[in-house]
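protein acetyllysine N-acetyltransferase structure dump, as promised
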Amino acid sequence: MAHGLSNSDMKKELFDDQTTLDDKLDKLAEWIKESKHFIVFTGAGVSTSTGIPDFRSGMDTVLPTGPGAWELRDNNTSRSKKAVVINDMHKAIPSPTHMALVELQRRKILKCLVSQNCDGLHLRSGMNPKCLAELHGNMNLESCSKCDAKYLRDYDAATGRLDHYTGRKCDKPECRGQLKDSIINFGENLPKEEIEKAFRHAENADLCLVLGSSLTVTPAADVPLRVARRNQKLVIGNLQRTPLYTMATVNIHAFSDTIMQGLMERLGIPIPPWIVRRRVRVTRESTSDNKNYEILIEGRDPDNTNIPFTLFKSIQVDSEGKTIKQMNREPFIFEISKKNAEPINIQFHFFGHYNEIPFNLNYTNISDIPQEDEFYLFYNPMIGQWRKTKNPDDFPL
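structure tokens r here:
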């Protein structure tokens, strides 16, 4: 069973004064500019500003989310009603830290992000999964126990079961294997692909920045340790001291958002706003009697079209002045007569974590639906509007 920090000195939160912080950030910015292989290692501290509590912050923490989950358990107490905590992690909006890391990755400055977090925010923020190693799993990801196919969900796929089985099955007709969530419980082995990716980048890294991690959980914490043992630069950004404190080139005591906002200013790179990213695939096939078309609507990972993504709570199809199909579960398939010459409206209803309004996909008639069509939907939650585009970088302002 996991516990909070037992050493009182390790629980103490430290804050650099402004002059000291400025000097450290100046130095870090220069190191990043000079770096050939820059990696970042994140822990729960990068998500506390989104309203998600961490695990090991002490009872007297300054964090609005309050003490860590394991600290509360060790002290046999509950979280204060005054704590600023989000009730549903799917409603959490990625922090400036999340979005700064996305932009550094997009510019190919950040080579790999290694994360201990399972809240899904790094993927949700737009981090390319090719540059992400999620060592402790992702609450939105499940995989087939038979063929290893991956499935993303816009809901919590984690079951809390020791065997990890979710009760769902692989979509592939030739497989239909049992799906398992991807969460790594204490005492379980880390996913081979993810840990190998993390250590491969640690072997190549000349600079590693740790953000919001106590670095007390192994083997995950061995990733930045590997960088330090190779005598490369290790910078740790955390309010508390960590076991690698003396091995770090620099220790920065500040909130993760403070560090990343100051760093991006020094790099001259703006932090992009967060946008909800969706990819949709629509396919049309003739039925066996050749009288109708069968239309299939699927969500797909915006960064990997081979990974299905459960995006829709329901889909409604209207034509000829009436609703011809209402679908409340996957697969979203409907048939329509080839003789139908009326306009067709397909209305997508989302899970609404960010109050997404329905999106209307309109076709002038059945022949207007392509045999295969794939496009992106981007939603700006600040203005409540969707943008449909073929360009994966055509984000709304």
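The CA atoms of residues 298 and 390 lie 16 Å apart.
lmk if u need the other ones
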